[in-house]
Design a protein that fits this description.
By secondary structure, this protein is an alpha/beta fold. It has a domain of 160 residues: P-loop containing nucleotide triphosphate hydrolases (Rossmann fold). 34% of the residues lie in helices and 28% in strands. It has a six-stranded mixed β-sheet with strand order 6-7-8-3-9-10, sandwiched between helices. It has a four-stranded antiparallel β-sheet with strand order 2-1-4-5, covered by helices on one side. The radius of gyration is 18 Å and the shape is globular. It starts with 8 loop residues before the first strand and ends with a strand.
Length: 230
């Protein structure tokens, strides 16, 4: 059942199922999950270990396809795409912020932020200009040419946030974004992520087990054993 009219929905997930086969055993990582997320929402996906959070993130982020069910992202049906089409929509529509930062260690902050634009075929000068502006926007204007090893954990995550927003994606997926940070840096990063929603209207989806993070979302989708629970 669709929960709301699709005209303002950036995500429509209908009866999503993901089954992994391990020999003769079938593991139902997702078992018929349905929800909608509207443009401009901040939503937390929560649940205990093994609940299906990571599988859901991979599907919503176009890193994997469901075994069955419908997934529509910003008006495009994702469920039927091939690998190349999936990579294309992922680069255009999704910005990722990971717990482990996922920065290229031998590249500067500027080069890391440029990367999604390289895949999108954007000219070099425009890439530099936009990446520079994004790093200034997250408070790293004086760290453009520093490599990840020369930055603190909080600064590395700021680079990741700048990279996530660089292509103006339909959604930003944040997977345990404060998990590797100290408390002060964690608060700063959450403030930064939420400011993208306040200032730009960006749709934010946060995958977390931390109730303190969940409390900062406008809505929580809870998963247990691959099913959505109220």
């Amino acid at each position: 059942m669709i929960e709301s009219q699709p005209n303002n929905d950036v995500i429509i997930a209908n009866d999503l199922r993901k089954i992994y086969k391990m020999g003769e055993i079938e593991v139902r990582a997702l078992d018929g999950v349905t929800f909608n997320i509207q443009k401009g929402e901040v939503v937390a996906i929560m649940g205990p270990s093994g609940s299906g959070k990571s599988t859901m993130m991979n599907i919503l982020g176009c890193l994997a396809l469901p075994s069955s069910g419908d997934y529509i992202l910003d008006g495009e049906r994702v469920s039927d795409l091939d690998d190349d089409q999936l990579a294309d929509i992922r680069n255009r529509k999704v910005g990722f912020v990971f717990q482990s930062f996922n920065l290229l260690s031998k590249q500067t902050a500027l080069a890391n932020v440029e990367l999604p634009m390289r895949y999108a075929g954007i000219p070099a000068k425009e890439r530099v200009d936009r990446a520079t502006a994004a790093l200034f926007a997250v408070g790293l204007g004086n760290r453009l040419h520093h490599k990840p090893t020369e930055l603190s954990g909080g600064q590395q995550q700021r680079v990741a946030v700048a990279r996530a927003l660089i292509n103006d994606p339909a959604i930003i997926m944040a997977d345990e974004p404060t998990g590797n940070l100290d408390s002060k840096s964690g608060v700063e990063i959450m403030d930064l992520i939420l400011s993208l929603n306040r200032d730009r209207g960006t749709t934010i989806i946060i995958v977390t087990h931390d109730p303190r993070i969940g409390e900062q979302a406008q809505r929580v989708i809870r998963l247990v054993d691959g099913r959505r629970v109220e």
